[in-house]
Amino acid sequence: MTTSTAASPVLKVEGIDAFYDSSQVLFGLSLFLNKGETLALLGRNGAGKSTTMKSIAGIVRGRKGSISLAGKEIRGQAPHQIARAGIAFVPEDRQIFPELSVEDNLLIAIKRNQQGGSDWTLERIYDMLPLLKPLRMRLGGQLSGGEQQMLTVGRALMGNPSVILLDEPSEGLAPIMVQKIGELIGTLRELGTTIVLAEQNLHFCLGLADHAVVIDKGKDVFYGTIDELSRNDDIKQRYLSV
């Protein structure tokens, strides 16, 4: 995949390999993302989407290649260092704190951005996610799956990240919550948030993403605009079961 672009990418992944113990999952994978863009990371179940996200976040340590954020190398750093550098990871299994209230789940994630500012405050999160405000004293473990997904996104935003990684945010949710999550991502995109969105569902990404990377067996097999992917029947049929 070529990574030539007129703008300087805020996130650039070049030729990374990733392993679970001795089992290799990613094979020279590359992608890049400009500030304010949404990149869809697409592929079938088991293609390597979550491993790509975890590699960027430092949870899975890559053995070679480069991952840079705003031109600074972050591959090899610990997850908390990468989070402080500006990467927010919303995992597929959400990982909220079930014994803490909604508000405490949000407050525990407060962090200033790289410029020392706080664009995202508790008040702004409640404005963006009005569903959470009446639940603010409820324990995280008492929330529905959709409510927990909203909470994890809000928690990520409280860290004022440069890039937010959303790993299958629509997975397992009722259709009405899938719609709400889509609307939330659309609003974040309009606000200029830089997003990597891992999904199996191409239809969900249409209208949300600017570009797409398709992964198959741990390799990037397509990079282009979301419209180019939508028109590419060969890629869709071979790698996305569309």
Description:
This protein is an alpha/beta fold and 242 residues long. The protein has a single domain (36-60, 83-240), classed as Rossmann fold. 32% of the residues lie in helices and 26% in strands. A hairpin with a 2-residue loop joins strand 1 and strand 2. It is globular and about 45 Å long.
Rg, nearest Å: 17 Å
Number of helices: 9
Indicate the CATH class: Alpha Beta
Give the uncertain stretches in residue-range form: 2-6
Quick one: overall form? globular
Number of β-strand runs:
10
InterPro entries: AAA+_ATPase (IPR003593), ABC_transporter-like_ATP-bd (IPR003439), ABC_transporter-like_CS (IPR017871), BCAA_Transport_ATP-bd_LivF (IPR052156), P-loop_NTPase (IPR027417)
Keywords: Amino-acid transport, ATP-binding, Cell membrane, Membrane, Nucleotide-binding, Transport
Domain ABC transporter: 11-242
Family: Belongs to the ABC transporter superfamily.
Helix and strand topology:
Elements: E1 11-20, E2 23-33, E3 38-42, H1 49-57, E4 62-69, E5 72-73, H2 79-85, E6 87-90, H3 102-107, H4 122-128, H5 145-158, E7 163-167, H6 175-190, E8 195-199, H7 202-205, E9 211-216, E10 219-225, H8 226-231, H9 233-240
Parallel strand pairs: 3-8, 3-9, 6-7, 7-8
Antiparallel strand pairs: 1-2, 1-4, 4-5, 9-10
Name a few traits of the molecule.
six-stranded mixed beta sheet, Rossmann fold, nucleotide-binding, 242 residues, BCAA_Transport_ATP-bd_LivF, alpha/beta, four-stranded antiparallel beta sheet, cell membrane, ABC transporter ATP-binding protein
